[in-house]
Design brief:
The protein has 423 residues and is an alpha+beta fold. It has helices at 56-64, 85-103, 124-129, 131-136, 143-149, 202-212, 250-272, 291-303, 305-312, 318-326, 378-385, 412-419, and strands at 3-5, 15-20, 33-48, 69-76, 110-114, 158-166, 169-178, 191-196, 231-236, 280-288, 338-343, 363-369, 372-373, 389-395, 401-408. The strands form two sheets. Strands 1, 2, 3, 4, 5, 6, 7, 8 and 9 form a nine-stranded mixed beta sheet that branches. A six-stranded mixed beta sheet has the order 13-12-11-14-10-15.
């Protein structure tokens, strides 16, 4: 059984964190640099952006994490360290070395992440000059400083923690992430740091990420742009004392279930906080021939700018949904397709209590049945589409597979935010 608890990257035993204001950018007034540290060496794994243009910090961490061991993760905002060449890679190396020196660990065991403006170098001296302060402030409650230090255009910090029982021991998994714009995750700008005290090998961590990420983070789209910096890493220090997981056994399945529950909450938080967004949009596709097809259909719907604009306008425009499904490339029969909109009063409280169902018992309106648009109560539909979270339920009656994807509406503010992003 998965239990949601308070906390983030320091919820698991043996992890500390901190976030500080280094002054990387004049317009940035809050914390801009974060550090997560395990008091013991961790097994580790990661997945990274599929964008061919990768940030130098991504290249660095991809290379280092191959060793399967990590002990710290450092992240700066304001500058993405992408399209910065050899100088940028050297900055990532020097950042890892500076962190390692302060923590007295191996520089090869430091994850380095960046996010922000592409094509401009990080003020290296400023960043490196504040590493001692960053390391000195590590604490158990440092997650509260770190979670805001990684935010860019995010309006809310994003963290979550869960517990489960493995081998008679309580295992905790915690996470923090950032992501608001340039989000069309394919492992948009998305960074996720996951920590756990579970005893599990790096190989099984990697398999867990491969199992969980396609159904959670990779099912999020805010604006259709896959970032140069997408990264999810996980560090496991083994202090929970459970029998070490080294194969895909029942204990591994329990771990994956807990990681999946946590990751779905994080995915929804990213989608709900899309740049300029006023509501979360969840698309559920039922009755597909296979999970892959269901995911393609669901993500195509929530990625459609026309669907997103209709959500902003509270317009139950079913044609845009069917259109997006039609060009997705997935196999389905339009003449067997039913589309329903669902929402629930008070759904915004989901993020305070993520173990509660977001739409169960909500109000609904069917707008398409067997491929034909229906006459429906427009006032009711407008009310449903006006709530903080809206669900699009699509039944294609072709099989037994189901999938979900998450996005948001497209508002005027999205253009405002991205029209002057560099300033």
């Amino acid at each position: 059984m998965v239990k949601f608890i308070q906390g983030g990257v320091t919820a698991a035993n043996g992890f500390l964190a901190n976030g500080i204001h280094s002054g990387l950018k004049a317009s940035r007034k809050g914390n801009d640099t974060a550090l997560v540290y395990s008091q013991s060496l961790c097994d580790a794994a990661g997945l990274f952006t599929s964008n061919k243009v990768k940030a130098e910090c991504v290249k660095f961490t991809m290379q280092k994490i191959k060793g399967g061991k990590m002990q710290a993760a450092v992240c700066n905002v304001c500058f993405a360290n992408a399209c910065t060449g050899a100088e940028g890679y050297q900055t990532a190396e020097m950042t890892a070395q500076a962190v390692a020196k302060e923590l007295k660990i191996n520089a090869d065991n430091v994850i380095v992440c960046s996010t922000g403006i592409i094509g401009q170098p990080i003020p290296r001296d400023v960043l490196l000059g504040h590493i001692p302060e960053l390391a000195a402030g590590l604490s158990k409650d440092g997650n509260e400083r770190a979670r805001v230090a990684i935010m860019t255009t995010d309006t809310h910090y994003k963290e979550c923690a869960v517990q489960t029982e493995i081998g008679g021991k309580t295992v905790t998994i915690g996470a923090m992430c950032k992501g608001s714009g340039m989000i069309h995750i394919n492992m948009g700008t998305m960074l996720s740091f996951v920590t756990t005290d579970c005893a599990i090998s790096s190989a099984m961590l990697q398999e867990a990420l491969k199992e969980v990420v396609p159904a959670t983070y990779n099912c999020v789209s805010v604006d259709g742009d896959t970032s140069t910096n997408d990264t999810i890493t996980i560090m496991a220090n083994g202090t929970a004392g459970n029998p070490r997981i080294e194969e895909k056994n029942e204990d591994w399945k329990i771990f994956v279930q807990a990681l999946s529950a946590l990751s779905e909450v994080m995915a929804k938080k990213i989608a709900a906080d899309g740049e300029g967004a006023s509501r979360l949009v969840e698309c559920v596709v039922n009755g597909a021939n296979d999970v892959k097809s269901a995911r393609v259909l669901a993500k195509e719907v929530i990625a459609s700018n026309l669907v997103k604009a209709a959500m902003f306008g509270r317009d139950a425009n079913c044609g845009r949904i069917l259109c997006a499904m039609g060009y997705s490339g997935a196999d389905f029969d339009p003449d067997k397709t039913t589309v329903t909109f669902v929402s629930k009063e008070g759904s915004e409280r989901y993020f305070e209590k993520p173990d509660q169902d977001l739409f169960e018992g909500g109000e609904s309106v069917v707008v398409v049945k067997d491929g034909i648009g229906l006459a429906f109560d427009e006032e009711k539909a407008t009310r449903i589409l006006g709530r903080p979270a809206v669900q699009i339920v699509i039944d294609i009656k072709g099989g037994n597979a189901t999938a979900k994807a998450w996005g948001c509406d497209l508002t005027y503010d999205y253009v405002k935010i991205n029209g002057d992003y560099r300033s």
